[in-house]
Amino acid sequence: MLDWLISPAMQVILLFLMTILGLIRYQSKSDKVFGVLLLVLFTSSLVSTEQVIHSFSNKGLLTLILLMICSVALEKTKLLRIITNYVIGPNYRLTWLRLFSLTTLSSAILNNTAVVSTMLAPIRSNPHHKASKLLLPLSYAAILGGTLTLVGTSTNLIVNSLVIDSGLPSLKFFDFTAVGLCLVLGCGVLLFILSPLLPERGKGSVEIRDYLIDAEVSVRSDLVGKTVEQNGLRHLESLFLVEILRSGRLISPVTPQEVIQPYDRLLFSGDVKKVTTLTQFDGLSLFASDSGLPLDNLSEVVIRPESHLIGKTLKHAGFRALFDAAVVAIKRDGEALSGKLGDVELQTGDYLVLAVGEDYASRNNIAKNFFLLNEVETEHCLDGWKEKLAIGGFLGAILLAAIGIVSLFKVMLILLGLLLLTGCLSANEVLRRIPKGIWLIISSALLLSQALSNTGALDGLKYLVHSYDYLFSPFMGLVVVYLLAWIMTELVTNNAAAALVFPIGIELASSLSVNPQAYILAIAFGASASFISPYGYQTNLMVFNAGQYKLQDFVKVGVPMSLLYGVIVLTAIPAFIGL
Asked: How confident is the model at residue 205 (pLDDT cuts 50, 70, 90)?
């Protein structure tokens, strides 16, 4: 009896259960929970060294990582900003329909987390509708759109990596589409009907931050003659247009209908890291642009009490000649700054963000005038042919993989090489954006699956199925697998749910001698069915605080969504895939 209790099979089952409990207890640290699992599996010799190496180099997993890294280049273009600009209007129903349609379509081919993060700020700052009336539909639309294709969500790609590791044929790009379309249409209609239940919370505009950024409109700019809203200047992420200086006259607050004119000075307030977003607008130049200094890495400083700059304006201080630097933005604690950046009279304690030249570090007057704070790494934006390459390359690669000309892994690896060679992505960006947490989670889950196989820990499932074969029909097995994935994704996270339920689903499919693809898709769709909990899916968590939602808001809309979603999945999979 004791031997059975401490047998390898029992050890793996206990680790499996402890992992679930750990994920429930530490929802925000799922990568650490899986990291501990990996170490225990390896040190207890439940998996081999070769299996550890193989789990980290799984083709499906590497495909997911490549896809996420290549999508970083797409985030640096203005594609999503242009899409967002056309979504929001004064009519709520039309705005809702445009938001849902464009979000689902975008999420089918792009990382749905990136889609939501790009649209978050424009929705929060829109002047027409409360953010809480749109942000939850945004998250749900991203979830539904992600079910349309293999690349729509990391969950689908995680399941595919587990499929490949199991020795089964890789899932195809459109294997999800038939069921996904039913979900988008059915759940989309229900979500539209339920939208009046959403609360009206959130300000009509974002909270204005205190850094002042000055940009000038040139006479030939495409912005001229169009309103602020038509130009998308109200839909910027973490930047807010607070004033327009026109021929010595200050326009504040700025209405969405204000028409931009040549030589207007547009004064933004917000996150200075997003300052490079302004360079994507044709004919809009920053106060520091004339200096020719790069905006790649900025320096943040505070003016010292003994600085000779005090009482002078930037225009008359000869700033570039003195410091080989130009001021990009300025803020002053406890006081809202107004007017053109060059006309601000500097005071002790003013914060400046500087674009610096090569001689800046060697100037002996820097320490005399400033307290040095830190470097501000701005977001790099693409334009010109690099932007076309990033957009065309990514969409072209997805198309080639979708029609089966080349594998997704191969085309993404080639695209990554092109993006690095052309400077659309830097090596530092790649290293910084590697999804280390997802890599660890999936690798550990693959090892857990190997340990379950090595020790025969799931053999008891076969015995259970055969003993109660009158209960376990192929359809009932499908229901069990789906419900397990759905409950797990609400309790833990979508990626962890897919990884943990997969070995059970495969073993159940084998025991019942049914089409394994049906059960595999049930796991993928079930793991994406996170509508009730704000913590089960990353996009839900992103909108939870931004929309000032409460848990009951998710429950009111999410419960009927989850029920309809489950009915559609369990009806459509047998109809389109077969059991």
From this structure: very low
Q: What is the dihedral of CA 254, 257, 263, 267, to 10 degrees?
A: 20
- For residue 354, the model assigns a pLDDT of 83
- In whole angstroms, what separates CA 334 from the centre of its chain? 34
pLDDT digits (tens, 9 = 90+) for 90-111: 888 999 999 999 999 988 887 7
What pLDDT is attached to residue 294? 66
Whether the Cβ atoms of residue 124 and residue 131 lie closer than 8 Å to each other: yes
Are 132 and 202 in contact by the 8 Å Cβ rule? The answer is yes
**How far is C-alpha 208 from the chain's CA centre?**
24
Using the predicted structure, report yes or no on whether residue 178 has a pLDDT greater than 80: yes
Residue 226 in 3-state DSSP?
coil
Tell me if 518 sits within 8 A of 561, measured CB to CB: no
How does DSSP classify residue 171? P
Q: How far apart are CA 575 and CA 6, in angstroms?
A: 44
Q: Which amino acid is at 286?
A: L
Q: Is the pLDDT of residue 452 over 90?
A: no
**Two tokens, residue 238:** 């973490």
Check residue 463 and give its pLDDT: 63
Query: What pLDDT was estimated at residue 561?
Result: 95
Q: Are 277 and 208 in contact (CB under 8 A)?
A: no
Dihedral angle sign, alpha carbons of residues 360, 362, 364, 366:
positive
Q: List, as one string, the DSSP characters of 21-78.
A: HHHHHTGGGHHHHHHHHHHHHHHTTSS-HHHHHHHHT-HHHHHHHHHHHHHHHHHTSS
The whole-number pLDDT of residue 208 equals 43
Task: Give exposure, 383-396, as e/b (b: 16+ Cβ within 10 Å).
Answer: eeebbebbbebbee
* Residue in 372, 345, 491 with CA at minimum distance from that of residue 33: 491
Q: How confident is the model at residue 470 (pLDDT cuts 50, 70, 90)?
A: low
Stated as kind and residue range, the H or E segment containing 562 is helix 551-576
Q: Tell me, what's the pLDDT at 145?
A: 93
Residue 560's alpha-carbon distances to 112, 187, 482, in angstroms, are 22, 9, 17
Cβ(195)–Cβ(137) under 8 Å?
yes
